[in-house]
Amino acid sequence: MSRNERTILAFDSAGNEYFIDMFVSVRDLSDLQHTGPVSDGPSSFRTREGHSVTHLGGGEFAVTVPGEEEAITVRTDDPEFV
């Protein structure tokens, strides 16, 4: 099960904006009788249009658009990633 953790606003070199949704995979570790912990897995990223996004490090992301040869590099000023 995945849940939307947050949304990041990023821009390419031409100033176009990209809304990137960060998802966290969540596994329920509880059993039927007890309310137990929830374990968070690694984060995954996708644009609002459903394009795959790779976190390159810091505030940089690569957006893979079908039909394009190369990924588009976008940057964010979001304090969690800068």
TrEMBL record:
It comes from the Bacteria. This is Uncharacterized protein. The lineage of its organism: Bacteria, Pseudomonadati, Pseudomonadota, Gammaproteobacteria, Oceanospirillales. It comes from Halomonas daqiaonensis.
